[in-house]
Design brief:
Layout lengths: L12 H4 L7 H19 L19 H9 L7 H11 L6 E4 L6 H12 L9 E4 L3 H14 L7 E4 L15 E4 L1 H9 L10 E5 L1 H5 L5 H9 L8 E6 L4 H10 L4 E3 L11 E7 L3 H10 L1 H4 L3 E5 L3 H13 L5 E3 L5 H12 L5 E4 L12 E6 L5 H4 L11 H8 L9 E7 L2 H14 L3 E4 L4 H12 L1
Parallel strand pairs: 1-6, 1-7, 2-4, 2-5, 3-4, 5-6, 8-13, 8-14, 9-11, 9-12, 10-11, 12-13
Helix pairs in contact: 4-5, 5-6, 7-9
Bound molecules: adenosine-5'-diphosphate and magnesium ion (MG).
The site of adenosine-5'-diphosphate (ADP) has 19 residues, from helix 5.
């Protein structure tokens, strides 16, 4: 599968499973293996990838079917099969859709946007918001890939995407982050009068009052009221405190919900390593370097300065790593994530900024260098050292995409972090297995088993 104009479209699942450096036999073998396990999972009624239907049966336009097959999709996943008929029905109805990480939510809302647009009308008709520029850019690559056989025109509403002099955006589909979208609406660069669909990806995050909620609500208030835009909310998590607000935000919505014990997928094996102190965490990370670069890996830290510090230190010591966080400028962020997507860097050290939504199939390992805590997501900075279960679920969900195998490793180093990890274990209902920090052979063994 080829890249799109932006050069970062993730290729079809089977082809992408094999890193480009493998020799041909390995490549064929691993491509074949992934294709086979995918087919098995899509035939298993208990899998979130299962569907009893074909894409043809979901009522999609022929041009969109062409786009879907061109991306290498053969069968819908469970969320696609269940959500699409509801999303495409007329008159339009709102949707609150929940499904595990990596199960294909993007296609469900992108196909909805592309189905609702009248391409003959040159006005914005579908708006989509995401919590980071990296995710907005990824969603856009899916819009362009799925819409490849349609005349769709698209535009970003992310920092530095629209020149200051721009007066009128006529694109059909606009994907962006809340601050920039709001700014363009207020300055009437985006005319909202023709908007028919409003999508929030990572909706619980977008609606959280302690986060992006205010800005998202402001965007919604600029949309037409009569008829109102169809509101579509998707996420892998909808914690109780956002659920009520979500139901008000998307009134009378069709709901597809997960049980608490279904929140994360089983194909991600979770481990922990018991480190002595902060310095030992660093040493353990370095000792893992060889394993981190078997595929690709993402290391999550609590603070930007930690991400900077450990990536600088590792680079100085001769290890190739990249780092990305919200204090970097737009161009720098784009270059880093694009390089990582292309596999130029194998290890990405980052913060919660890309904990959600990012889909890079080659990522088979996630390290929680610092566990995610509630006080990071609260911009009031209240002291709250409970673990942030939702962010945890999203972070580990950067691996194990669409049925692939993945590994997550949590570093704990004192009583507090130990207890936080235990809470994560009990609240997600998934076992976290101990791995000795000084037994790399065992670690490698366990990893190979988990990834098989
Ligand atoms: P989510 O948003 O639910 O976490 P994504 O929409 O990012 O998941 O999809 C995860 C991966 O699965 C992507 O690489 C996507 O291209 C792939 N995918 C989605 N739907 C299908 C499908 N029906 N068949 C094959 N691959 C799919
Ligand atoms: Mg997603």
């Amino acid at each position: 599968m080829e890249k799109d104009a932006d050069g970062f479209y993730t290729p079809a699942p089977a082809a992408a499973a094999a890193p480009p450096t493998e020799d041909v036999t390995d490549l064929i073998k691993s491509t074949f293996e992934v294709a086979v396990t995918l087919a098995d999972q899509q035939a298993d009624p208990n899998s979130p990838l299962f569907s009893a239907k074909t894409f043809e049966e979901l009522g999609l336009h022929e041009d969109l079917l062409k786009g879907i097959y061109d991306m290498g999709f053969t069968k819908p996943s469970k969320i696609q099969e269940r959500a699409l008929p509801l999303l495409l029905a007329n008159p339009p109805q709102n949707m609150i859709g929940q499904s595990q990480s990596g199960t294909g939510k993007t296609a469900a809302f992108v196909l909805t946007m592309l189905s609702r647009v009248d391409f003959a009308v040159h006005k914005p008709q579908a708006l989509c918001l995401a919590p980071s520029r990296e995710l907005a850019r990824q969603i856009m690559s899916v819009v362009n890939a799925m819409g490849k056989f349609t005349p769709v025109q698209t535009e970003y509403a992310i920092k530095e995407s629209v020149p200051k002099s721009a007066t009128n955006i006529t694109a059909h589909v606009i994907v962006g982050t809340p601050g920039t979208m709001m700014d363009l609406l207020r300055r009437k660069v985006i005319d909202a009068s023709g908007v028919k669909v409003f999508v929030l990806d990572e909706a619980d995050n977008m609606l959280d009052k302690d986060g992006l909620g205010d800005q998202t609500l402001r965007v919604k208030n600029m949309l037409p009221r009569n008829p109102p835009a169809q509101i579509v909310l998707f996420s892998a998590t909808f914690p109780d405190h956002v659920r009520t607000f979500a139901s008000k935000f998307a009134p009378n919505a069709n709901k597809i919900e997960l049980q608490r014990n279904e929140l994360s997928v089983d194909n991600i094996r979770q481990f922990y390593m018991d480190c002595r102190d902060e310095e030992h965490k660093y040493e353990v990370l370095v000792s893992l370097y060889k394993l981190l670069t078997i595929g690709q890996s993402i290391i999550f830290c609590q603070h930007r300065h930690t991400a900077d510090r450990i990536s600088q230190r590792m680079s100085t010591e001769g290890h190739k790593v990249a780092s990305l966080h919200g204090a970097m400028d737009a161009g720098g962020r784009d270059a880093i994530i694009d390089g990582f997507r292309e596999g130029k860097e194998k290890v990405l050290i980052t913060t919660n900024v890309i904990a959600r939504g990012i889909d890079i199939l080659q990522v088979n390992m996630v390290v929680n260098y610092d566990l995610p805590l509630m006080n990071e997501r609260d911009h009031h900075n209240r002291a709250d050292s409970r673990p942030d279960i939702e962010t945890y679920i999203h972070r580990i969900g950067r691996t194990g995409r669409f049925g692939r195998k993945g590994i997550s490793i949590n570093f704990v180093h004192d009583k507090a972090t130990w207890q936080q990890m235990e809470q994560i274990e009990s609240q997600t209902g998934k076992q976290i297995i101990r791995i000795e920090t000084n037994d790399l052979d065992n670690m490698e063994e366990q990893m190979k088993k988990a990834l098989k």
